[in-house]
Amino acid sequence: MPTPKSGRQQMLERLYDEVRLATTADLQRAASFLQFAREVRRGCTKQRSSGRRAQRNAWRKGVDDSIAW
Question: Which helix (H) or strand (E) covers residue 42, if one does?
């Protein structure tokens, strides 16, 4: 019995099948879309991490840092 394929393997096989039938313009649009999607994910990650950082340091707004104990 063959080992079951992961979801990623199944999607890659599906993508390979479509690449064989695609035109150059189709491939160019697909590559542009994948690049855009990766940039969006990267931006979302940056936005979430900056939000977490702001929340982590929000308590400092009401604190007078000039006083040293």
Answer: helix 24-56
d(CA 54, CA 69): 25
Q: What is the pLDDT of residues 49-66, one digit of tens each?
A: 999 999 998 888 877 777
CA distance 6 to 14: 13
pTM for the model:
0.60
52 near 60, Cβ under 8 Å? no
Radius of gyration of the chain (CA): 23
**Over the stretch 11-45, which tens digit does the pLDDT of each residue have?**
999 999 999 999 999 999 999 999 999 999 999 89
Q: Which residues contact 27 (CB under 8 A, 6 or more apart)?
A: 19
- Which of 51, 29, 48 has its CA nearest to residue 40? 48
